[in-house]
Amino acid sequence: MEFCEKCGGIIKVEGDKAACASCGVKAKKRPKIEASEKINQQEKIEVIKEGSDNVYPLIAIECLKCGHKRGYFWTTQTRASDEPETKFFKCEKCKYTWRKYR
Prior knowledge:
about 0% helix; N-terminal domain of TfIIb; two-stranded antiparallel ribbon
């Protein structure tokens, strides 16, 4: 952005002509307007293999379906905020999922 040397107003460009928007004095040179952007890094797209997305803690709990002794758990607020959260369990072996309310 260029400014007028006489009054400090903004230089307005119309076609090949450049003049001050405040006082109307013609600009000596046409202002240069440049825009550039450099991108150095390309975004990486990562592929998640099936089975590697399980990041839940593994605990000692007996599966209700197959009797396996270990499973994953996570908690979620399924009811009103003044009530306790629901704890979900998933069997490590058969992938059966169940829940317990507190």
